[in-house]
Design a protein that fits this description.
By secondary structure, the chain is mainly α. 75% of the residues lie in helices and 0% in strands. The longest helix is centred in the middle third of the chain and has 35 residues, at 53-87. This is Flagellar protein FlgN.
């Protein structure tokens, strides 16, 4: 497999990975991740020549999709952490801009 085909495989697998994350489909996520890793290994095995314009565009698209997948994972992890904290009784209320950190409230709290 050449680098172009490997990058296309990575992009396709990242699309599948994002869809699996959105659907909470673990089996599809495992399949997409394995496919992505195969593509990454193929790119690494053919990493002897500089990237041309097409390959650079494909690599940037893969990076963008990978960042999107990372954001999904981080949001899911944060939601799980927040839910566990709530179930354990130590959860803080959700952040609401303008409520906790206004200077007037902070000053008033300091003089109580």
């Amino acid at each position: 497999m050449n680098r172009r085909d490997a990058l296309i495989q990575i992009i396709d697998s990242l699309h599948a990975e994002i869809a699996a994350l959105q659907a909470n489909d673990i089996i599809a996520l495992e399949t997409a991740t394995a496919m992505k890793l195969q593509g990454i290994e193929a790119v690494a095995a053919n990493d002897d020549l500089p990237l041309d314009a097409e390959l650079e565009t494909l690599a940037r698209e893969a990076q963008r999709l990978n960042e999107t997948a990372r954001i999904y994972v981080n949001l899911m992890a944060a939601n799980v952490r927040r839910r566990i904290d709530q179930l354990a009784g130590g959860g803080l209320p959700a952040y609401r801009p303008g409520i906790a950190g206004t200077p007037q409230r902070m000053a008033a709290a300091a003089y109580r």
